[in-house]
Amino acid sequence: MLDLDLTNSRPPRATISTADAHFISQDWSAYSAEQHAVWSLLYDRRMDALESTASQVFLDGANIIGLARDHVPNLAEVNARLGPRTGWSAVPVDGFLPAPEFFSCLASRRFPTTVTVRSRDQLDYLPEPDIFHDVFGHVPLHAHRVFADFLQRVGRAARAARSDEQTHAMARLFWFTVEFGLIREGGDVKIYGSGLISSHADAANALGPRCERRPFLLHDVLAQPFRIDHVQDTLFVLESFDQLFAAVDEAATWLGLEPA
Ligand code: FE
Q1: What local confidence, expressed as pLDDT, does residue 133 receive?
Q2: Which residues surround ligand 1, an ion (CB under 5 A)?
Q3: C-alpha atoms less than 13 angstroms from C-alpha of 152 in its C-beta half-sphere
């Protein structure tokens, strides 16, 4: 999970990533019956709605990686399905990662993933990421070849950022795509961003009358501020994932980022 509070974000002091310090292991056998039950509840509540509101890329990806309603995902099993398709893996971490470490992981096709399960009294509001946001929300997209390549390029470009301006611009690209992206499919606007996939309230806002849905134009995206503590007033609608793939290289060129 990326720490999008950019007041915490500083360019890396060295080219060697320190993400290793955040890696943990997932002790899948330690999940309680209550934690599996909470997962099932979250899965049912979202998947019912997602059948008609989510991008087909998410729905296909959820099948490919083997998301199941009856148990918390075992990352070893997820990765055994995901790796052969796109080379991505979900790696367990202990919480938020600072931007340089997070983007370095993406550059090597590793997605930092929290493994905790929220409690039953936090089904709808969660100040910290958990496995439902990180795995249910993010990882299905990583089974799609174009999105998988896009996400690695985001990491490669963003980890080359050396100024606040460059870091903030790449964070906006990440926010309005990976976290809160919309895409037109079959004439309808569908959700694919993890913050929308994993949250009923955010998804309802994104598709509702109060959110302005603008065409995905890279310059507009990079210029659009975002709030992490508020529902989104403005989101951007892609026409295809190929458009997304082109946008990241264009962004890197505009920002003068040399992907390392
Ligand atoms: Fe996220």
Answers
A1: 96
A2: 194
A3: 14
Q: What is the pLDDT of residue 260?
A: 55
Q: How far is the centre of ligand 1, averaged over its atoms, from the C-alpha of 32 (Å)?
A: 24
Q: Which residues of 174-208 are buried (b: 16+ CB within 10 A; e: fewer)?
A: bbbbbbbbbbbbeeebbbbbbbbbbbbebbebbbe
47 Cβ contact list (under 8 Å, min separation 6) = 62, 69
What's the maximum distance between 2 C-alpha atoms anywhere in the chain? 50
- Residues of the chain with confidence (pLDDT) below 70: 1, 4-18, 259-260
> Of 104, 179, 194, 199, which one is the catalytic site residue?
179
Alpha-carbon distance values, 58 to 47, 131, 257 (Å): 11, 16, 30
Ligand 1 centroid to Cα of residue 167, in Å, is 17
The ranges assigned to domains in the chain are 31-255
Q: How far is the CA of 2 from the centre of ligand 1 (A)?
A: 7
| Candidates 22, 133, 142, 144; catalytic one | 133
For residue 188, the cross-strand partners are 185
Cβ atoms within 10 Å, residue 33: 7
Annotated active-site residue in 138, 142, 144, 194? 138
| Side chain identity, residue 147 | F
Cα–Cα distance measured from residue 179 to residue 196, given in angstroms and rounded to the nearest whole number? 7
Ligand 1 mean position, distance from CA 134 (Å): 6
Q: How far is the CA of 177 from the centre of ligand 1 (A)?
A: 10
How long a stretch of residues is the chain? 260
Q: Does domain 31-255 have CATH number 1.10.800.10?
A: yes
